[in-house]
Queue: 4 jobs
Job 1
Amino acid sequence: MIERRELFGILAAGAALPVGLQGAVYEPRFFTPAEYEAIDQICEAIIPKDEEGGGAHDAGVAAYVDTVILYADEKSKQFAREGLARLTAAPLDQLIEFEDDPFFSRLKALTIEGYFNSKVGFEYVGYKGNAGRLTFPGCNHPEHKP
């Protein structure tokens, strides 16, 4: 089992990662270049680019996944390598076949975490950052009206 301090270290490392850097080349630190490319493609299949915004690739999600796994325990690293080997054995358009696969479930969660903690994800949901507000737009409670 992972210790709480170790978990916070992993999360801090992932949060400090500069994801979503346009034009920047990320060198994977845990995955091999081929594995990293596969992670990038799978993450993009999970959250693809569309008319509303960029996808997982644009957000740099594969770099986030690589960083989280890099700081994980040995058992988790082995779990990631074995799980990725299972996923890459099938064509990308058949990912739904792995819906119940434990690694695929974990990878989906990491993809969502990485995406919505990136600049691309912030833009997608309209997050403007922490700011003081005098009113609460969209709130219908009378005590929140000016």
Note: Residues 4-144 form one domain.
Job 2
Amino acid sequence: MKDLRILLFLLLAFFLTAGLSQAADFSADLINTSQGQSTRAKIYVQADKIRMETPETEEYTVLRNDKNVIWIVIPEEKTYIEIRSSQTREAGIKMKGEVSRQYLSSETVSGHAAKKYEVHYLDKDTLHKAHQWVASDLNYPIKISALDGSWSTEYRNIQVGPQAESLFEIPEGFDRISKSDPPPAESKPDQTKEK
């Protein structure tokens, strides 16, 4: 369950950043820092699809904007959880809840020329401020940090290029389980999984 919390934390941090529709295909290391703690993940981006893996677990997450769905895949159990969402990600570089944006400067981040912005956004009716760096060649935000320094998200070791389609699909033979199902080891014989 700790692994699931790590994945959900990474998803939350990831959703705070921008959209996909015009981004270049790439893979990168994703570093999230909050309250002095860092979490790493590997991310793969293709058009309107994202896959995120954490080194602490075999579980991984796939976001499919084209299907309005998020899958949490659990390879060791050959299962996945499907979460339907009409709010997967907005197109463009706009942050979720964004109310204003001001261009500040041009900088280099992780070897990419980037435009730095100050962004104001609402989260649960509270106004927050962050800096966002959008890589010109990727048309994608590769770094974002709270102005107060309380958290940050940064993409490093960015490798631009096509990503395998299989990264964004459920592996063959995996069963869908609902969020309320007990783990397979605790399942009763009369329970069935959805295909």
Note: Confidence is low (pLDDT under 50) at residues 1-10, 12-18, 181-195.
Job 3
Amino acid sequence: MSRFLACVADLLKLTHYLKSGSGIPCRETWYTCAVTLSIEIPEATLRALGPSPSEAEGKVRLAAAMKLHELGNLSAGAAADLAGIPKVEFLHKLADFGVEAFRTTAEQFDLDQDTLRRSLG
């Protein structure tokens, strides 16, 4: 089955589940369809982002992925997919953008330390 037909079939299934009110089955395999999003960028900005449009696109995708992850809108895996890089590489690049890899409050950190100390005896 072509990727397009698989996407159409998934949309039809989703529509059916939503209309029937039965919910979406947990074991159903879903395919994600790529959606093209276009934005207008001033030529000067494009030149500042890189020597080629594809390099500029990569930088914009990575920056958007980083910010959306930082805001909590995307998981690290989803953000890496958006950036078009492996998750491990995405996680390594977080520091380059000043994004913390772990979102832990001081209170949660103290609780974790106490739990670790108790478990180690």
Note: The chain has a mean pLDDT of 81.
Job 4
Amino acid sequence: MTVIVHQPAAGPAPGDDAAAGRIAAAALEQFAELGIRRSTISDIARRAGVSKMTVFRHFTNKQGLVEDVIARELHRALAEIDRRWGAGSTIEERLVEGFGFAVSFVRGHPLFGKLLRAEPDMLLPLLTVDGAPLLALYRTLIAERLQAEVDAGRAAPANVDQASEVVARLALSLILTREGAITLDDRSTIEALVRDTLLPMLRLPGSTGTPQ
């Protein structure tokens, strides 16, 4: 599966228009209810209140629709992570909010949560062996925001890109593998992870305190 994701921007999700959006929303509901394999284009068209022909005019086939639905949801998630980062007053708060949202979004998502449990082969390649585009996007988003912290004198990682990739890879790994010494099951564990593992990597030169 090849899902094209783009850096969030103002406006609709990639490929959005009224009919396509309604079909994608219906497909999301259908996939979450029955799974991707058991869902048909007829099911989705009926739920969306359109004909099968209308679905095929917007999406070449079921695979194209699946990829569009996933891309839309990832676009929505990344936009929300970006918003929460901007709302934090310190880098610690921003990292906690970003991690917290990412965990709750994937684990509580009506489709992603179901796929991870029942049809992992439909989602895991996007996040693992075929995950380079998503990792690159996530790394870039983090790097841009981390560079702003560096420019403001609030952080000084040895290498911004490497630090950003560590954060991105760590987030994906912890979200996908729930069991372990680090579970991220509540805010206190997320705060501990940020405080004890991430902030030391981002400290100001010669500083023994937390970057603000």
Note: The two ends are 41 Å apart (CA to CA).
